[in-house]
Structures are given as structure tokens and as C-alpha cells.
Amino acid sequence: MTTELSRRTEEYCKRVLDKNASNQDIVEAYNDWAQIYDDSVKSLNYECPSVAAEEMKKLFQEKQDALILDAAAGTGLVGSELKKCGFHNLDALDASEEMLEIAKKKKLYKNVVCDFLGPNRLDIPDDTYDAVVIVGSFNPGHVNGSCLAELIRIVKSDGYIVIVMRKELLDEKFGRDLLEIMDGHVSAGRWAVVSRHPAPRYSSLNKGMVFVHRVQ
Ligand SMILES: C[S@@+](CC[C@H](N)C(=O)[O-])C[C@H]1O[C@@H](n2cnc3c(N)ncnc32)[C@H](O)[C@@H]1O
């Protein structure tokens, strides 16, 4: 990694992982990071987009026209991996305009929406998607369990929600709160667990965890 890329990558990672940062600070940090985000994460061997795409391939087999929302899509790295697996019916949503500008240039997505994932209602009808995939974005100050009810609402019955995130978060309050919300949706019969397992790869810095739930 060049020294300059390494210095700036470290600076942005610090900003987005700052536990005291507000949602707005985080979105501003991604707006600033957008131009070099792909180079940064490549230098960190960030492989979870391909892990997520492989999970989707297992779930959908040959149904490559599945309508998939890449939530917190960023610059479109997940969309790009989904496309390599043959998926071609993709939408993207993210809170950062600048990250989405990079994603749009890749021409991977039919609809690209700038919106916030949280307890707020999304401007998306009920039962729209065959799946939602969300990668690398469940983090303090980013996306948390408060958006899951809304994701469940926009996914069709028998559709999937696939989450790939840092495994170490499960040992923190953030992860414990998330698991409690996930399990609450299981108990309420809103979704069922398909699998919860360590990711085969994540990045040079972190280990990963994959959550796959089927909407009921
Ligand atoms: C680490 S990046 C991951 C992007 C992409 N999924 C990937 O794997 O490369 C996190 C993304 O989450 C977005 N984000 C953070 N909090 C969000 C929220 N509450 N709602 C929507 N997007 C959010 C950021 O703008 C950023 O693009």
C-alpha cells in the first residue's frame, strides 16, 4: 500500500469507527472517503462483498433474476460481486450521496436511493424484494437492529435478509443488542433463522459473521 493511501485509509477508518461519532458524522466521513474507498478497502483485503454474493448464490441457485436490495451499498462493491454471480436485478440504498455517486458510475443498479436505515419508514412498498443484503455496515453509529423491522416489511414472504458483519462486535453491547432484536423477530414469527455462521473471509483486520434469515 502506498504511504499516502495507507495514511488516509487509517484516518477514515478511525473516523467511521469513532464510538462517539453521530450518524451525521459517519455519513460525512463516508462522503469524504468515497473517492478512495475502493482502493482503501482493497488494500485491507476486504472480502466480505464476495462472501455475501456467494451466500446469495447458495440461496437463489439459478434464480438470477431475484430482485435484491443492496442496503448500505456504499460504492457498489457488493453489487459488483452479485453481478459476477449472475444477479442482474439490483437496487441500492445508502445514506451517503458521495458513496452512491461512485456506485452509480458502475451501472450495476436499476434504482439508487439515498436514505437512512433506522427505525424510520423507507419509501418502499411492502413485500418488494426477494432479498436484502447488507454488508460491513452493522457498526456502532452506522446501521443497527432498529432497521430490521423495516427490512422485514420490504422483503417478500420467503425472501431473505443476509447480513455480513464484523464478528468481534458480537462480544460488545452493540452486538448483544442486535442479537436480542434478531431473536425478538424470530420469537414474533417475523423471520426464521436459516444460518448464523462465521464468514469464511472478511478482511486482514477482522473476522466476519454471516446471518441469513428467511422472512415469514
Ligand atoms: C463500510 S461501508 C460498506 C459499504 C458496502 N456495503 C461495502 O461492503 O463496501 C458502510 C456504508 O454504510 C453506509 N451507512 C452507514 N450508516 C447508514 C445508515 N444508517 N443508513 C444507510 N446507510 C448507512 C455508509 O454511508 C457506507 O456507505
TrEMBL record:
Residues 68-159 form the Methyltransferase domain. Pfam families: Methyltransf_25. Gene3D superfamilies: Vaccinia Virus protein VP39. It comes from the Eukaryota. InterPro entries: Methyltransf_25, SAM-dependent_MTases_sf. PANTHER family: METHYLTRANSFERASE, METHYLTRANSFERASE-LIKE PROTEIN 27. This is Methyltransferase-like protein 27. The lineage of its organism: Eukaryota, Metazoa, Spiralia, Lophotrochozoa, Brachiopoda.
